[in-house]
Design brief:
By secondary structure, the chain is α/β, with parallel strands linked by helices. The protein has 2 domains: 12-124, NAD(P)-binding Rossmann-like Domain (Rossmann fold), CATH 3.40.50; 130-266, HUPs (Rossmann fold). It contains 9 helices and 8 strands. It has helices at residues 3-10, 25-36, 51-61, 84-105, 139-155, 183-201, 219-226, 242-248, 251-258; strands spanning 16-20, 43-47, 66-68, 130-134, 158-162, 210-213, 232-236, 263-266. The strands form 2 sheets. A 5-stranded parallel beta sheet has the order 6-5-4-7-8, with helices on both faces. Helix 3 (51-61) packs parallel to helix 4 and helix 7 crosses helix 9 (251-258). The relative contact order is 0.12.
């Protein structure tokens, strides 16, 4: 056995490694593992899976020896509503993407070594990240939902949409009997509003997995409760109105001061 030959094959001295989809989990660990070996002379490039990224890497470092492909996508639509276009997108990203990535890399070979790892199934495992977005049916909530959806697509995260509700508060000058509101109708109205926003921004067509939660309670505390294990919380800068904010406090301000995860406050475009 030629041990020197085997060692040279697995050594990283002078080699350039390109890693895709390295935002979290095993994919990030792979990239960090290569970075840890930079002391051995390795160069690590973390990129999206695009031909331009490969070309730029070749132009900058003179070639690529190691390709680790992890970027992938998956269907989020219910089984009875999946379209041919959605299936084609998954096929293009998960199957054709790695092939074309290697083809783009081939002319830059400085040696015969190619390391290819495909991790197309990991985005729906238990380690998949979660982004929480709070909405209330306002224009600001629409902007927040759009931003959160794009970020979830970029990260490959589940999007949890939260629309909290409370029983209406009545103030009268004299005692008066008011029948209790129908809880089921309130929850239905909250779900309808959330689903309308989902349809408005085309969330299903984006291929983002999402859930809708309609908890009872004040928006700030309820959003933070559901975002306790989230990687990111997104809220709008302006909600249902200044009067409600004066009475209940700003939801975005509350979340920014009490959240245990990073918070993004989305301002509406002028």
């Amino acid at each position: 056995m030629n041990t020197n030959r085997i060692t040279s094959l697995f050594g990283l001295e002078g080699r350039v490694a390109i890693v895709t989809g390295a935002t979290r989990g095993i994919r990030r660990s792979i990239a960090e593992g290569f970075v840890a070996r930079q002391l051995d002379g390795a160069t690590v490039v973390v990129v999206s899976r695009k031909t331009e990224a490969v070309n730029e890497t070749v132009h900058t470092f003179g070639g690529i020896e190691i390709v680790v492909n992890n970027a992938a996508t998956a269907l989020s639509q219910p089984l009875d509503s999946r379209t041919a276009e959605a299936w084609s997108k998954v096929s293009d990203v998960n199957l054709r993407g790695p092939v074309f990535l290697i083809e783009a890399r081939s002319p830059s070979c400085r040696s015969g070594l190619i390391a290819l790892a495909i991790d197309a199934c990991s985005r729906h495992d238990d380690r998949m990240g979660k982004i929480v977005v709070g909405i209330d049916g306002s224009e600001g909530a629409t902007h927040a939902l759009k931003w959160a959806a794009n970020e979830a697509k970029l990260r490959g995260s589940i999007l949890q949409i939260v629309y909290s509700w409370q029983y209406p508060l009545y103030v009268t000058s004299e005692p008066i009997y008011m029948p209790p509101p129908d809880k089921d109708l309130i929850i239905k109205a909250a779900n309808t509003t959330a689903e309308k926003l989902v349809t408005e921004i085309g969330l299903a067509e984006m291929g983002v997995a999402f859930t809708i939660e309609t908890p009872q309670g004040r928006p700030g505390p309820e959003i933070l409760r559901l975002a306790a294990d989230a990687e990111l919380l997104v809220v709008g800068s302006r909600g249902a109105g200044s009067v409600r904010e004066m009475l209940l406090g700003s939801v975005s301000n509350y979340c920014a001061h009490h959240s245990s995860c990073p918070v993004v406050i989305v301002r509406p475009t002028e």
